[in-house]
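S.,

Sequence below, as promised.
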Amino acid sequence: MSPPTSPRISRRLRIVLSLLILAHLSAVIAPPLAFQSRGPRGLSPSVSLLLSPLAAYGQFLYLDRGYAFFAPDPGPSHLMRVEISSGENDSAEANDANVETRLYPSLDDQWPRLLYHRHFMLAEFLNDAYQPALPGEAAKLVGSDLPIEELKAWRMGRQRYEMIADSMIRHLQKKFDAQDVKIDRLEHMIPDFVPYANEPTPLNDPPTYVLLEDIPITLDTLLGVLPQDLPQPEPRETVPAPSGEPIRDRSETSETTDERERDSETTVPIDRQRAVVPPVSEGVSPQ
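The prediction came back faster than expected:
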């Protein structure tokens, strides 16, 4: 009795199957490669060229998710601080007393964990959609330095962010029967390894929560970057913490060698004040 033989596959079919397998492997490799090659100016052109024909296939099979969140160095996470006011009294003191502050996500309010994760993704979605408002004189700069298409892209990005934020505000107004709702974006910084190893601190330490203010973009920044290269704004004003804890100010002084030669008594203070936000019950994970 002769041993069973496997069916023969034609050369053309083998080539087709090999190409399909290579295409699938490329779709698996391209998203993490794009994440690793991302820089301040966006994606690497070569990686972007590889990713563009496979993007739809990767999204359909859900192959392009989670590389930033589950990376060895995931970076900061983002939360929403919501101030809810009934607005029944006209005096400022009464309004301050009627303000309720909530944080999203928070394990104190969202449970089970899936509900917490849902609010976490909503906070990240709002932060990803953020785009600062344009200065009023931006339309006067349309020309070679600022193409009309780029100006439209900025305006559309800002309108999209405002629509998302307004939708969340309307939902919260309806849910809590409130007249006034304000949403602030918070960034939860992850401590660097060396300082953390020398002096371990809780991951939900209040100074690790930074308020991201909504401030218009400057003309210099507008002319120097593209919409996809949007930098996150740095906090520039002191904002009272919801719990009434004292605000911690951090200042550092820097001066160049030339300045020291001209005037040894001249220093340039650089003040970056961060609003201290009360600890958030986020479990063990820094997110």
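The chain has two domains: 11-60, 77-239.

Coffee later?
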